[in-house]
Specification:
With 228 residues, the protein is of the alpha+beta class. The protein contains 10 helices and 7 strands. A 3-stranded mixed β-sheet has the order 5-6-7, with helices on one face. The protein has a two-stranded antiparallel sheet with strand order 1-2. The chain has a two-stranded antiparallel ribbon with strand order 3-4. A hairpin with a 2-residue loop joins strand 5 and strand 6. The relative contact order is 0.13.
Length: 228
């Protein structure tokens, strides 16, 4: 069965980076020149210390008083005030850096992004050196796989070669990443296995099964028991 793509397959390896002493205007220029929305800040050993994003730069701008006096003055925290008055990457960055590793699965990277509310992760090697960056957009590319490619992988790798289920026994339909399995398998225990493996295929959004079985070799799930 084909291996899941991981962070190393999706990350950008040509990473623009800045040092802690890089100034505000230089950072703004780098983001504009490279058409990126954030840049990692690294130390002398190329280890990520944090990330400076457009939002971090805008925080400084939004801290300025309203010249017309129409907006109510905000009461930022001490940390927010410090970052709003910062002039270099060390003060502007969001830190510590939340990082990923090249061998992480897409699921691991997505969960860390969600947990820490970040849109990108610097990727580091075993000694913490920056080797790439992976973004939400990179992860979402998996869901742009064509339906026919998903169907071929499920029918060939998952059902035929892994579970030894003949293509004549189970029909695979894929529409916009949503998979439906129809047919009959030899053993009841193959049904949850097939569903679980299909859910792990890159690009699959959802899996619905309408499968019957010839041999009851395991206790049915509560849902299936209610249906029979």
């Amino acid at each position: 069965m084909r291996q899941h793509r991981n962070v190393s397959d999706l990350m950008t390896t040509s990473v623009v980076r800045v040092r802690p002493e890089t100034g505000y205007k230089d950072i703004a220029g780098i983001l504009s020149d490279y058409d990126i929305s954030a840049v990692p800040v690294v130390d002398a050993d190329d280890r990520p210390l944090g990330v400076v994003s457009e939002a971090d730069l805008m925080r400084k701008e939004s801290a300025h008083p309203d010249p017309e006096g129409l907006l109510a003055a905000a009461r930022p925290s001490e940390r927010t005030r410090a970052r709003a008055t910062a002039t270099d990457a060390a003060g502007l960055m969001t830190s510590p850096a939340v990082v990923a590793h090249p061998d992480w699965t897409v699921v691991e990277a997505a969960r860390v992004m969600e947990e820490h509310h970040v849109k990108r992760l610097p990727v580091v090697d075993g000694i913490g050196t920056l080797v790439g960056i992976v973004s939400r957009a990179d992860l979402l590319r998996l869901f742009l796989r064509k339906d026919h490619a998903i169907r071929e992988e499920i029918a060939g790798d998952v059902l035929d070669r892994t579970l030894r289920i003949s293509p004549t026994e189970v029909d695979v339909e894929v529409a916009d990443g949503r998979v439906t399995l129809h047919g009959t398998v030899e053993r009841r225990s193959l049904i949850p296995m097939a569903k679980r493996l299909c859910e792990g295929v890159d690009g699959v959004v959802d899996v619905t099964e309408d499968l019957d079985y010839r041999t009851a070799d395991a206790a049915p799930s509560p849902e299936r028991a209610a249906r029979r």
